[in-house]
């Protein structure tokens, strides 16, 4: 049975929200980040450093805190870049992580984009 929601004070059903598409520039940024991580796997330490910096801040947004927790679960198993890629680009966990691209700050250098 499909749940139907009604507008307040009305008997007309409310429009369903469509799932928003991910902007192309966001996916392009994350594709560049993971291409760089595949070429230089040692840069995963930058991601860990950024996460540690965010965790050291006393007041974090709840969404950022949740995104960091989910990334730390991926890092507990291994530093597998492909697993991290699948999690960040997925629809469930990835939506929250992609809201905070500063987690991946410092991975892409200006020199690597100049090619």
In short:
The chain is mostly helical. 56% of the residues lie in helices and 0% in strands.
Tag the structure with descriptive keywords:
115 residues; mainly alpha; 6 helices; 56% helix; elongated
Q: What does this molecule look like?
A:
This protein has helices spanning 24-39, 44-56, 62-77, 81-89, 93-98, 110-113. The protein is mainly alpha-helical and 115 residues long. The chain has one domain (24-108). α1 runs antiparallel to α4 (81-89).
Write the layout of secondary structure elements.
Blueprint: H1 24-39, H2 44-56, H3 62-77, H4 81-89, H5 93-98, H6 110-113
Helix pairs in contact: 1-4
Helix count equals 6
The share of residues in helices is 55-70%
Q: Extract low-pLDDT stretches.
A: none
Number of strands: 0
Beta-strand proportion: under 5%
Helical/strand content category:
mainly alpha
- Largest sheet at a glance? none
- Determine the N-to-C terminus distance: 54 Å
Order of helices and strands: HHHHHH
Q: What number of domains? A: 1
Question: Any idea what the shape is?
Answer: elongated
Please tell me how large the radius of gyration is.
Answer: 18 Å
What's the pLDDT, averaged over the residues?
Answer: 82
């Amino acid at each position: 049975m499909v749940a139907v929601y009604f507008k307040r004070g009305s008997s007309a059903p409310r429009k369903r929200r469509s799932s928003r598409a991910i902007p192309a520039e966001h996916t392009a940024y994350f594709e560049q980040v993971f291409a760089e991580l595949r070429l230089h796997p040692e840069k995963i330490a930058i991601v860990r450093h950024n996460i540690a910096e965010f965790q050291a801040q006393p007041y974090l947004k709840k969404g950022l805190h949740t995104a960091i927790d989910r990334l730390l679960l991926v890092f507990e198993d291994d530093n597998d870049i492909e697993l991290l890629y699948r999690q960040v680009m997925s629809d469930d966990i990835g939506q929250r992580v992609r809201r905070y691209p500063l987690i991946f700050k410092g991975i892409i250098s200006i020199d690597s984009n100049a090619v």
